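Late entry, written up from scratch paper. The run itself happened at the end of the previous shift, but nothing got recorded in the book at the time, so transcribing now.
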Amino acid sequence: MKVARFDPDKRWLWAIDAIAVMRDAGTWPRLLMRGSRAAYADIVGSRIRAQGLRIERIALSPESSVRDLADAVARTEAEVCFLDYFVPERGLRAMYQAADGVLANSEKEPFGLVGLEVMASGGIAYVGRTGEDYAVPLGNSVVMQSDDPRELLATHRSLGARPEIVRAIRADGRATAKRFAWPRILDGYEAAWETAFALAR
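Output as recorded:
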């Protein structure tokens, strides 16, 4: 699954190439994607077609239930499902938790809120090499270490053979997200500001 604006920094082309690699390996991948209204969407669409991936547009009402979405996804054989509607927060959380993984591996990431949202939902965040200081590779998340789209397939196979690691990543991810709850973060910033003000006097 991938939810991000259509932008080169969000590594959409890598994601599409990785899904194509998985398809070619016979793993029957399914990418649920939600993007933004941006010109870069055309480039992403072109890559999907160039890779010969099947894509299906799913457009539901914002009031649709998680079951409605699950039913719509189950009815399609496409490797890529484009969610062309506003997905409410409860729907995103359910998808994050149900997915084998959520691709949040941006090219440049100042912090990585999506990764933490995935963790808080009990999902597995696949993050990049930059910005997500909270990420522990195969501890609370999966950290993509290369630009090679085959890495996703290799990681998927490795984790598929080790369900105990998958359970541990989900549990540790939830614990990590709790440490980054807004009240706790703001308390820390308040202490930092007080220290800075004291030194400025």
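The first strand starts at residue 2 and ends at 3.
(Scratch paper discarded after transcription.)
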